[in-house]
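Write out the 3D structure for:
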Amino acid sequence: MPPSKKSRRPTRRELQQLKEYGELDPLNSMMRDNDLDALIGNAISRSGYGRLSRSVHTVQERARHSKSNAEDSLLSSFTKAPKRAKGNAYSKLLGLLSTKQGMGSRGNSLVEREIKESGEDESAEEIGLDDDDVSDAKEMKGQMDDNSDRSSNEATMQSADEDGAESKSDAEYEVDQVDYDDLDDRSDREDTAKVQESTKGDDDEDKDDAAEVYESGDFMAAHMADDDSELAHKKLAAVTQKKYSSMLIEDPVYGPVACYNTIDEGVKEPNQRPLKQRLVKPFHKLNKNGDFTEFQRSLFNWIDQYRDVVYSGRTFDKEDEITTTYALHAINHIMKARDRERKNNAKLAKTQAAGKDAGELRDRGFTRPRVLIIVPFRNSAYTIVKKLLKLASADQELNSSRFEKEYGPSEDDADANKRKPVDYQQTFAGNIDDAFRIGLQLHHRTVKLYSEFYRSDILIASPIGLRMTTGAQGGDRKDFDFLSSIEIVIVDQCDVLLMQNWDHIAHIFNCLNAIPKKDHGCDFSRIRNWALEGMSQYRRQTILISQYMTPEIQGLFNNNCRSIEGKLRVKPIYSGSITSVVAKVPQVFKRVAVSRLSFAADERFAHFTENSLLEIERLTKTTKHTVIFVSSYFDFVRVRNYLREKDFSFVAISEYSTRSEAMNARRQFHAGELSYILYSERAHFYHRYPIKGIHHMVFYSLPEHPDYYSELVNLMLTSNTPNVSADSLSCTAFYTKYDQLKIERIVGTKLVSQLLNSERAQYTFT
């Protein structure tokens, strides 16, 4: 790296970086924009992925590649004669000063050992430095010693929940005035010392291998291994070329399960000891049934294999079992990964103390966060965090009082929404703010909430909350480096997220596992080769959980789930929500002929306006009170504009309508002052308006949620007076051949093929 053109003294930040990240200093202010790629190239091993590799054979050569170059860049920036040779001389002088004054950083010990092993004992005169140079170097060394106890503030990305609370004092949340940023460093040092003490004097390689953190049959060890084997390349080729070996498995709990394997290996046997031992008791205490239930055991066996999993049978009865299972999987993954890092730290310290080469110890990614959990509301995040805290069973939970205040339920939540359906009460119970993000930092004895993103192990966020951090497409504010090393993504309640804005989910997945723009203080010698190669997306596990399958979820499963361990889809068999209809109303299903999927929306609209709406208008001349239900908001706007243009007597109720507007519209409709109500699915999801006086129910498009169909049809029974004849009531639903998932949930799995493929285009259910 060329020295700075302008001579200056290094800042405290630069000196601290040189001290703390002695092997390289990629965040140096004098660094060129393209130097990060060069550093990544230098960090890839010769035995790894060949096209970017460079040979670094010995400890001494690695020291020259990293430490000498970084110190050379920083020191030469303030010398009187900025020359490359003088920068190298400063590196040697820094090594001499470290030897004499006990400078203890990891990078300097490498330089010191290099000088000792080469048998050189050079003075300042021998390496060509004048008195001023020596004094400058000594002054820099003194500044480094003065700042030895300061923690580095490299992480600039903070949990966004801190944005609105920066002005609040810690006393307000009953948090002690203590700096906890270095909890990790202290914990790692203590654990490393314990491991070193337990392995002191043990030079037998077989014994060292027996003390590995993972067992040989552990799925995580195999999945995250930094290998370049033929099997790994075969799996990767199957994923990139989408050449899966598919098979249908009859699961005893879930029924038919579609498996997509990357190699012909059949069904793997479950891991006999999948959990860290210290998680067993907290899990049994948290789980209501003690050990795994049959439902939990089957689900955990699938996700423990690090397959991508989409489960579309989520119910509120199974919610507790599902959240407990994936929370256990997430914290089990974090603990295994952290134990591996501590084990390697101890091994590195032991070999360095013995003057040996530890070899390559690659056990991490570019940044610290490993698990990302996406949920729609704070009430869901509250439940998940509570379970993670119980599983961690830490002695101290930092910022817990603040978390209770900002995420916990309020006192009046118990009496809210009692008149709404049960599923509505469960979805919207507690805090339903949809803009949040929070980081969790895990240690053996401490869990810190609201940790900075770059210091967090687990991130929990809503789509809009995370989008506020990563920035808009094409905007100036773009920071998603903290997503570069995510190893597990869990998206829960996908059905609810679809009612928010699915574009945010697509944007987040586009940001995952990209090469970061900055280094953020990582140690490139510890980063796995496949991460350096930009292949992290093929080691990421994605878990999608929803009440039902939709084309959006299926598209995410097909295009963004790329784990080399394969993927799995669990879709239940539906009996049909039409069985829940109690109103004695003839229900007519009409299939709209469409040529292609891209033309389906236009052809549906043309069929409705040119044919169906004329029939509906004839009915309303005698009896008004017609509700037109539209699932998609884009179709809703299109139909609304057409009705306005043709001067229909109608009112539109969408999710953007105010409560007073909706109340006014419902009153006029019930009184017969309006002929139509145009009603969106999102409005029904967020409000469940009890519309009274419905005589004709028209589904322009079927609802995504199957229960909405039976709810709306049954409103004709509960919202009309007894003198309304059943013969005057009607229900008409339009669908296309591309609505297979919707129609299956409404009429049932057994009848769906008949409605889609038969020659008849109209079916009536009574």
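The CA atoms of residues 306 and 541 lie 6 Å apart.
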